[in-house]
Write a structure and sequence with these properties.
The protein has 431 residues and is of the alpha/beta class. The chain has 14 helices and 19 strands. Helix 12 links the parallel strand 14 and strand 15. Helix 3 packs parallel to helix 4. It starts with a helix and ends in a 13-residue tail after the last strand.
Length: 431
């Protein structure tokens, strides 16, 4: 088995090397030859949640509730869900999705839901209609006891062949009252990689034993996982190989040893930028809010270094990031040449104030016109070093084009404002 696995890995790496050669010298390898090196490239689709009655939202980009519902309704064997929490409301867009989960469970599909202890009561109440069904299992991962962080990942895997990963929580507001970015991933290797990490966390939730988890972490999986060293080939809309992708995870203390760490991969993406880095994230700070007090240099240094070497760095944060000391930190970035910070203010819903909604909640970055990151964590230390999070990295011009279009639309929007040194900004009400 190990020999066969090694043979598959070498063959895949050969295909990846051939594709990389087409990026370095596009005329050196004809398209049919490149396609012959890759049997089953992944298909990855950018997905967006758009607040109702707002100017946000790129035309032609699929919407989160439609994609989730389609994936769940077509599940045949299994659905594994990693969710920060679950909050449903009758008549809103998450309700049909939870109903579809229940229907698939009644049809014999295995449904496993892994959440954390945060917002335990609304999660328990929202999952109550599912909890007593056959084929449904629910576990809580006690991250507060294990690392002091939270179970913040937001992804699910269907039949070990497709997956969804992104910023949207299993919250009715995340469907159409919050701006979110995610990716639908149709790839058996990427789906199995996410599912293997899910199974690792699922076991920890059952036993709560971190030393036992660390012993399991050194065991290799029984398939070739997608990592930075062994990426998956990505196809464009016409099915032609056009890029690569890999999954990455946090935190290092609580993940299998064979996966790619998220933080170092994100620093590499920023370091790779030649002309431009665009970041759209809810919060961003190098000042630690949770855990030990102090300064978190990793992403901060990468962003400042990019600006210092002449890369245009554009950052959009949510107006929720305007609390102190985060506001002061963000202003410290704006003194640099080549670096601009804006904050996004999503207008209130016509129906009135909605708690914990109408906010910029995306977590993605684009370097130049080809490198992409889509994650589940905010850009502060605890999300990378203490909390469960997941992400996908792509060298994929088509995905970069879509995300650049979304970013540019928001950057120019009247509700996205420059963060200025001489102005004090009161943080908005969020609940």
């Amino acid at each position: 088995m190990l020999a066969a696995s090694r043979t598959r890995r070498l063959a895949r790496l050969a295909g990846t090397a051939a594709l990389l050669a087409t990026w370095i010298a596009p005329s050196a390898l004809a398209e049919p030859a490149a396609a012959n090196n890759v049997a089953n490239p992944a298909h990855i689709q950018i997905v967006e949640s758009v607040p109702k009655a707002s100017e946000y939202g790129q035309p032609g980009v699929p919407r989160t509730p439609d994609v989730w519902l389609d994936m769940i309704e077509h599940a045949e064997h299994s659905i594994d869900i990693a969710a920060f929490y679950v909050t449903n409301k009758a008549g809103e867009a998450l309700a049909p999705i939870l109903n579809a989960l229940a229907k698939r469970a009644r049809a014999g599909v295995s449904v496993r839901i892994l959440t954390g202890p945060t917002f335990e009561k609304p999660t328990r109440n929202s999952l109550a209609p599912l909890a007593d069904l056959d084929h449904v299992a629910i576990r809580v991962l006690p991250m507060d006891r294990l690392t002091g962080g939270v179970a913040h990942a937001k992804y699910f895997v269907v039949d070990g062949r497709s997956a969804f990963l992104g910023s949207a929580n299993w919250d009715w507001r995340a469907m159409d009252q919050i701006h979110e970015i995610g990716a639908r991933i149709d790839s058996r290797r990427l789906a199995r990689t996410l599912d293997a990490v899910f199974a690792f966390d699922w076991a920890i939730a059952a036993e709560g034993d971190l030393p036992a988890a660390r012993r399991r972490a050194v065991k290799p999986p029984d398939f070739d996982p997608v990592t930075r060293a062994a990426p998956e080939i990505v196809a464009d809309d016409r099915g032609r190989p056009s890029g690569t992708a890999f999954a990455a995870f946090s935190p290092p203390a609580l993940m299998p040893g064979w996966v790619t760490p998220e933080q170092s991969a994100l620093v590499e993406l920023i370091d790779s930028a030649r002309q431009r880095v665009r970041v759209q994230v809810m919060t961003l700070s190098a000042i630690n809010e949770y855990g030990p007090k102090g300064y978190w240099a990793k992403l901060d240094t990468a962003l400042r270094d990019a600006a210092a070497r002449g890369v245009a760095v554009q950052i959009i944060v949510a107006d929720w990031a305007l609390r102190e000391p985060m506001q002061a930190y963000l202003k410290s970035l704006t003194v640099l040449p080549n670096l601009t910070v804006k904050y996004s203010h999503v207008p209130a819903a016509p129906s009135g104030f909605i708690p914990y909604a109408r906010v910029e909640h995306c977590k993605y970055a684009v370097a130049d016109n080809d490198q992409v990151y889509i994650g589940t964590g905010n850009w502060t230390r605890s999300y990378f070093e203490a909390s469960i999070d997941a992400s996908i990295f792509m060298h994929a011009p088509q995905a970069a084009h879509t995300l650049n279009a979304i970013f540019e639309r928001d950057w120019q929007d009247d509700n996205v404002h420059d963060l200025n040194q001489g102005t004090d900004y009161p943080p908005p009400r969020n609940h």
